Amino acid sequence: MKKIIAAVLSLCILGGALPAFRNYVPNTEITARAADYTSVTDGYLTYNVYEDYAILKFCNTKATGDIVIASEVNGVPVTKIEDECFYNSSVISSVGLEISSVVIPDSVTSIGDRAFYYCTSLESVTIPDSVTSIGVAAFGYCKSLESIEVSENNDYYSENDGVLFDKSLKALIQYPAGKTDTSYSIPDNVTSISNSCFSGCSAITSITMPNSVTSIEERAFDNCRNLSSIEISNSVMNIGDRAFYCCTSLTSIKIPYGATSIGNRAFFSCESLTSIEIPNSITIIEDNAFALCISLTSIDIPDSVTIIDRCAFLQCYNLTSINIPNSLTSIGSSAFSDCKIESITLPDSVTSIGSSAFSNCRSLETINVSENNENYSSIDGVLFDKKQETLINYPIKKTGISYSIPNGVTTIDESAFYSTSLTSITIPDSVISIGGMAFEYCDRLESIYILNPDCEIYDRANTICNGYYTDSYYFTGTIY
Q: Residue 326, exposed/middle/buried by CB under 10 A (0-12, 13-18, 19+)?
């Protein structure tokens, strides 16, 4: 049984009747003063009091139980709960504030962004009729919150079965993270799923989404770790950043035609994901979009994609097959690092490849480049720029134990030989620069022949080294 302790603001902290919100004047302590406001602390709560209104600024980390927010402080109404007011306290205390309920007075018109985010003990909250604005993720990650109540007289917000919506029921704002239902059907007229709407909902395993939904905003399903089934609406045009971040039970996803980009970290660490369908409308796969999707074995990238951003498929350890479409112009840094691909062919459309794009791909034997590519080339499966002046990547599993870099090469790129099994490398006198970590973790490398005594070696100690899995980190062979 939930009990309300009428406390906080010096009002009967250990019990007693609740004061009338509109008439309460706290026994205040002035802790700071600025040109336009006075800072007032009473109990666990701190307010900034301006000439004709006050805002709730901060909640002390020691706050527990039931919190009552005053309607007035020093004779002026409390109209706003500041951005991250309770969330900041949760971060500082590491485990979240141990508050179980919050009473919001009908003087409050605005609840700020992430105001109660990560209040993991919060069990109940009621939105009064005065509230006209609720910020992004205001009640996100409240893992004990089973229901959000909204006054029937509120003109801007409503609730349906404890789930928070706007008044028109078109924006699904917050599905309480503590709800115990395992499945949920989004109502038919909903058009948007708001930022952090389902964040941290651990019970839910299945969601039905109607075709009315056109937008899935940032972090919408973040850390729904038991969500295994969801069919994205065919009308969705936008999948926000981190939309399905760490949905570790999700096994398949079909992105609808019409969506143009996959947001950064959209499917990051979806560890069970084995199937992805990407439509011809997608033009950008943003950074870390599918990083750490460790069960993914293959992916077909459509001809519409022009950019694969940095770390897009980073540490997809079992990804063995991927096609690079003729539309692709840019591959970001570490885009395919730590993948299991055996070979890759770059089409003539590619104009930019970021550093370490294929580093630590331990099954990679060859990198091929279209003869018509104006920016890159390949010699015997080794990646160079078009003029063959820069050696970009030597595939880790390329056969052979020794390698002589071709004459005319002037630069060895960063991480170019990362973790190869070579025992000997000969560097011609044409090479004037060796990039950072060029030979890092080459634990079998015994000798390096550098024929140009004036060759510049960037960060020498960490560039010529080995021993990632041995006691000696630094290169123990011979440099000639």
A: exposed
Provide the sign of the torsion angle of the four alpha carbons 110, 115, 116, 118, taken in this order. Answer: positive
80-89, 123-132, 327-336: segment of lowest average pLDDT: 80-89
Residues 226, 179: Cα–Cα separation, whole Å = 13
Beta bridge partners of 424: 402, 447
Of residues 95, 88, 94, 106, the one with CA closest to residue 46: 88
Other Cβ atoms within 10 Å of 119 Cβ, number: 29
Counting residues of the chain whose pLDDT is more than 90, the rounded percentage is: 77
- pLDDT for 92: 60
| Residue 339: both structure tokens together | 């993948």
Whether 360 and 396 have beta carbons less than 8 Å apart is answered as yes
Examine the pLDDT at 25 and tell me if it is beyond 50: no
Distance CA 120, CA 106 (A): 24
H/E stretch holding 92 reads helix 87-93
Dihedral sign, Cα of residue 242, residue 248, residue 250, residue 253: positive
CA distances from 339 to 263, 274, 318, 321 (A): 21, 14, 6, 9
- Rg of the chain over Cα atoms, rounded to whole angstroms, equals 29
Distance of CA 107 to the CA centre of its chain: 36
Q: Contact, 194 vs 172, CB < 8 A? A: yes
396-425 pLDDT, tens digit each: 999 999 999 999 999 999 889 989 999 999
Q: Measured between alpha carbons, how far is 151 from 145 in angstroms, rounded to an integer? A: 17
pLDDT exceeds 80 at position 304 = yes
**Helices and strands in the chain, H and E counts:** 2, 42
d(CA 214, CA 194) in angstroms, rounded, equals 11
Residue type (1 letter), 169: L
426-448: average pLDDT: 90
**Alpha-carbon separation of residue 93 from 61, 142, 383 (angstroms):** 6, 15, 50
Helix (H, G, I), strand (E, B) or coil at 15: coil
CA distance from start to end of the chain: 78
- Around 47, how many Cα atoms within 13 Å sit in the side-chain half-sphere? 30
What is the three-class DSSP state of 463? helix
From its phi and psi, is residue 153 left (phi > 0), alpha (psi between -120 and 50) or beta? alpha
Query: CA angle, corner 13, sides to 9 and 14, nearest 5?
Result: 175
Q: How far apart are CA 427 and CA 407, in angstroms?
A: 9
Q: Is 20 exposed, middle or buried (0-12, 13-18, 19+ CB in 10 A)?
A: exposed
Q: What's the CA gap between 201 and 221, in Å, rounded? A: 8
